[in-house]
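Q: Structure for this?
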Amino acid sequence: MNLTRMYGLFLRHFYLITRSFPRILDLIYWPSIQITLWGFISNFFAINSTYYNNAVGVILTCAILYDFLFRTSIGFNMLFLEEIWSRNFTNLFIAPMKISEIIISLIVTALIRALIGLVPAILLTSPLFGISILDLGIYLFLLFLSLYIFGITLGILVSAGLLRFGPSFENIAWSTMFLLAPFGCIYYPIEILPEIFQKIAYTLPLVYIFEEARNILINNVVNLENIFTALKLNMVYLIIAISLFYFSFNVARKKGTLINIGE
Amino acid sequence: MNYLVEVKNLKKNYSSKEAVRGISFNIQEEQILGLLGPNGSGKTTTIGMLLGLLKPSAGEIKIDKMNFETNRIDILSKINFISPYIELPKKLTVKQNLTVYGKLYNIKSLKERIEYLTEKLRLDELLNRVTGELSSGQKNRVSLAKALVNKPKVLFLDEPTASLDPEIGDFVRSFLETYKKENKISILLASHNMNEVTRLCKSILMMKDGVIIDKGSPSDLIKKHGRKNLEEVFLKLSRNNHESY
């Protein structure tokens, strides 16, 4: 592992973000809009729902958690897509960077991108809705960690698809999160899902994360088993995603996709 | 003979075709080797394999005595590439791009290296400009600076002066000649500009249908095929069936 090389790749995206005010605004704008929208919906449900009436801000907290997941995943994909759009792909893959260095560098950059968007949105929730996500206490860190790992796992999986199939895989990059959202039980308990969907949902870490967030906020009880199950599942998916990325890189070298994407 | 690049029986098959069919050649230290051939002859595939972007179906590539497949990262740090078909990030300034690539190649004295390339390639006034807003001639010089940022031992050039006006094209060719002499690097030049190839290369490989159909110095090839210049040799070889050679 070479820190200078990883820093170089981070710098490429840092320069890109800091050179463009619209880009910074874009990173902040959508999470803020999303959180504000869900803040008002949350307020409405808090007044009119028996399920949520004791826990103002459950929906909003879940919206913030989901947005963090969404931003991390899309952020990772964007870093990869930027190289394709700018026709810089070949330059990147003829630089002496190990695949592990590329992945780590993009993982860190994706986190920073996600935080640039999310921190202002979180700061908005307190004055606007009188809610703080910090109510989740120290477990907030574990929930964020789980979501971060799953977000980058999805990002790595989609990037592996881009490597293997080229830019035609781009549409998948945008739709992954929307496909998984219903199974994540972000805003509702898992019992709402049909049985077959419940079985699918239990294979994803999301359901454990969001169930636990609601558990803490509504019942004031912490079930560590949920948190650790999510982390364990995350590790399995992350290992699969990284293995698939290496596999896709090797297939791309055999099939010539790296050249076709680059030009 | 000290070879920096050794290619032995290199093949690349895709599912439906054989793009490169068992080619072998070497590039000596300080040599500029020309790689000519019509579109679809296998030049890009060959360069792709030499850059590690493509995995050969068979054969061996050694650069600086190291096998490519087992020393990919070490070799990539010693080579570089320019093509008008790939670009540097457009939204970054020239200086930012050179800094990023300097870091990716882990260059120790990066500031000095950028200063050196800035002076040699007349980039002073471009350093703080956004790369995407430069003219094609300016972009070409910036790409050249990026390609030399790691002091490569071997430089792969794919149409390095395509779409440049004659003055800038001449500047790039003169620069390459001087840089090669001063830094003792080897160059593989793929080009359709026969005057450029005649000027820069002492040795040429002619490719067609994935094989090397002829090789030699420009003057030897012109003499051998009884033509006036390299362009006529190229046309003759491109139009004829290679089995006749």
